[in-house]
């Protein structure tokens, strides 16, 4: 079966679908049917905690039935799309299951999304309703409804807002509604949106519940577990890997954290005796620092999952030790594939890889990253870095209403091009080294930024690091490292010292960052990941400033060189080799001090590498202090 055009989702070929059913991956069960089974098995156990609200499995099931009837009364019908933008609270799961029981497809927007993104989601999906919370988001949703003709309802949780429907009113006595097709779309997730606005990812009941079920098993979830949703629960990681849905599948309790910060999370861990939670690496490091100060009882925590981005080995080990629990690395994507380190993996695997796939039928290919359009069997040698392609029983075969993008995002035989650069170990574990688009081509030498970032993060005074490529007239690209210091280390961290530290790690010279900037913090996305997009925007802004600053800085550098040489400034050419002109080592040492007046923290050796006025002026401006 070929790729269908203009349909809700690209189906798996008939032979693969039959294989997945025969293997027991796809069990023909819907979200609603699963919740009914769980309510029968765990009726009086606590299913969800959100603020002051506590719902048992029976109460969650009842609320979902009443909401399904309420959606039907509003005119929401099977196959209708509804943008769901709710925070982490007790409403999220009843609304999700209620929409599913009504046969609607929730479009899982993040709380951080604003009007432009909501308009994109609603317009692309042809949504009939937007569900959100709070006056500000309600106002944005109303403006979306005014410009997207398909949107008929704006439903707001947490209080009445003029011109909208109160979520509390979307309820009716339970009624018999046809169960959706388990092989049909259950929900629409969002892609990372790294190349523009996010694409919509159609996940079916069959494929998604297989991922949830196996994730809960791999992570060892039990009925006595308490899972803390610290990250926004509409994101795939805290929703299903194993997330709140995995917790429910195990008969455990899901606790909704209103924000992911240590003070909030630790209070909930202590109060609810949380056993499992999931964070991104940046938060993991913040949790480790907060735990060191004490003040909260975290002894119930048995497992911290770290995902969303790779966690450097040294820091993964430090986080586990600081929190006194096991650490599990998770690598996954809304499009499907999820990898986990396992409880019986040796420490070097847990701390040094991002795990191995859920399913025996997850197919992974690692191909030449310089030719991402190569045939899907053009694999690199074992252990080499390449671009990851994948397909399997829970990895989609195409984005929703995105035929043109699908033609490049998927191979003709159905492999999804993840865009990730990985290395596979002999044991089948995956080590993520970066993104294809983040790979830096420095004069023909390829730099995987994740590798350099991990070396920088190994420095005892570095909290976090991000490396991006910046345009360069001679090399095509140079590398720029942004570094956030740990604690009070900002006064002692220098660009020169950090570059030397990376050299001592035994890496190739071309991988040592060309530039280093020490910053107070990184911009973050709605789920707490570092926003490389905003950092690149900052680089572009500085490049624009450079165009206006460089002539002035060239003259400032020329004046200092002239003073050191004792010659007229107008006799010094921009691109002249100044070592050949007599700028010896003693004079270079003098020049280092004079260039510090311009804010450049450099060294004798660094100046000697490119001994021209133009290069030094460029260095001052590129370092961002000129």
Write structural notes for this entry:
The chain is of the alpha/beta class. Among the domains are: 439-530, GMP Synthetase, Chain A, domain 3; 543-622, ACP-like (Non-ribosomal Peptide Synthetase Peptidyl Carrier Protein, Chain A, Orthogonal Bundle). The chain contains 20 helices and 25 strands. The strands form 6 sheets. The chain has a 9-stranded mixed beta sheet, sandwiched between helices. Strands 4-3-5-6-7 form a 5-stranded parallel beta sheet, sandwiched between helices. Strand 24 (476-485), helix 16 (495-504) and strand 25 (515-518) form a beta-alpha-beta unit. Helix 7 (205-218) crosses helix 9, helix 11 (281-292) packs across helix 12 (313-323) and helix 17 (532-565) packs across helix 18. The longest helix is centred in the C-terminal third of the chain and has 34 residues, at 532-565. The protein is elongated. The termini are far apart.
Brief descriptors of the model:
alpha/beta; GMP Synthetase, Chain A, domain 3; Non-ribosomal Peptide Synthetase Peptidyl Carrier Protein, Chain A; 5-stranded parallel sheet; elongated; disordered N terminus
């Amino acid at each position: 079966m070929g790729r269908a055009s203009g349909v809700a989702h690209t189906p798996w070929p008939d032979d693969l679908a039959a294989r997945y059913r025969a293997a027991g991956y796809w069990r023909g069960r819907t979200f609603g049917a699963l919740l009914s089974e769980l309510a029968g098995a765990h009726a009086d156990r606590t299913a969800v905690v959100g603020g002051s609200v506590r719902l048992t499995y029976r109460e969650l099931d009842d609320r979902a039935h009443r909401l399904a009837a309420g959606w039907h009364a509003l005119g929401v019908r099977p196959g209708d799309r509804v943008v769901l933008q709710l925070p982490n609270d007790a409403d999220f799961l009843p609304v999700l299951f209620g929409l599913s029981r009504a046969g609607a497809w929730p479009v899982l927007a993040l709380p951080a999304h604003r009007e432009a993104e909501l308009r994109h989601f609603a317009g692309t999906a042809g949504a009939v309703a937007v569900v959100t919370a709070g006056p500000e988001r309600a106002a944005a949703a109303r403006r979306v409804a005014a410009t997207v003709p398909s949107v008929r309802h704006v439903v707001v949780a947490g209080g009445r807002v003029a011109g909208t429907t109160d979520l509390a009113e979307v309820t009716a006595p339970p009624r018999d509604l046809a169960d959706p097709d388990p092989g049909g779309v259950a929900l629409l997730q969002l892609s990372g949106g790294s190349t523009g606005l996010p694409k919509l990812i159609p996940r079916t009941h069959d494929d998604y519940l297989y991922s949830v079920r196996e994730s809960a098993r791999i992570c060892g979830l039990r009925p006595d577990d308490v899972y803390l949703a610290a990250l926004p629960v509409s994101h795939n990681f805290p929703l299903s890997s194993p997330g709140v849905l995995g917790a429910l599948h195990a008969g455990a309790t899901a606790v909704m954290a209103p924000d992911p910060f240590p003070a909030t999370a630790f209070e909930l861990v202590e109060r609810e005796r949380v056993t499992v939670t999931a964070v991104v690496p940046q938060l993991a490091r913040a949790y480790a620092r907060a735990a060191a100060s004490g003040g909260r009882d975290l002894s119930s925590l048995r497992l911290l999952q770290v995902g969303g981005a790779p966690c450097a080995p040294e820091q993964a080990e430090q986080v586990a030790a600081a929190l006194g629990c096991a650490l599990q690395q998770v690598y996954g994507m809304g499009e499907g594939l999820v990898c986990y380190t396992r409880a019986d993996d040796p420490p070097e695997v847990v701390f040094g890889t991002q795990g191995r796939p859920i399913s025996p039928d997850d197919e992974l290919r690692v191909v030449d990253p310089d030719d991402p359009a190569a045939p899907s069997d053009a694999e690199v040698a074992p252990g080499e870095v390449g671009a990851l392609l994948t397909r399997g029983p829970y990895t989609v075969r195409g984005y929703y209403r995105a035929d043109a993008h699908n033609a490049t995002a998927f191979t003709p035989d159905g492999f999804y091009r993840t865009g990730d650069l990985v290395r596979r170990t002999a044991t089948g574990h995956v080590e993520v080294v970066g993104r294809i688009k983040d790979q830096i081509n420095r004069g023909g030498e390829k730099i995987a930024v994740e590798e350099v970032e991990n070396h920088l993060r190994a420095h005892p005074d570095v909290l976090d690091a991000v490396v991006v490529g910046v345009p360069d007239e001679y090399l095509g690209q140079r590398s720029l490292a942004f570094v956030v210091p740990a604690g009070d280390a900002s006064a002692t961290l220098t660009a020169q010292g950090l570059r030397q530290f990376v050299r001592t790690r035994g890496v190739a010279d071309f991988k040592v960052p060309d530039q280093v900037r020490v910053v107070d913090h990184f911009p973050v996305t709605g789920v707490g990941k570092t926003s490389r997009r905003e950092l690149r925007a900052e680089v572009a802004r500085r490049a624009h400033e450079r165009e206006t600053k460089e002539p002035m800085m060239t003259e400032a550098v020329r004046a200092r060189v002239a003073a050191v040489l004792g010659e007229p400034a107008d006799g010094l050419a921009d691109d002249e080799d100044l070592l050949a002109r007599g700028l010896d080592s003693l004079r270079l040492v003098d020049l280092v001090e004079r260039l510090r007046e311009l804010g450049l923290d450099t060294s004798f050796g660094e100046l000697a590498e490119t001994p021209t006025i133009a290069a030094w002026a460029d260095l001052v401006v590129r370092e961002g202090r000129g």
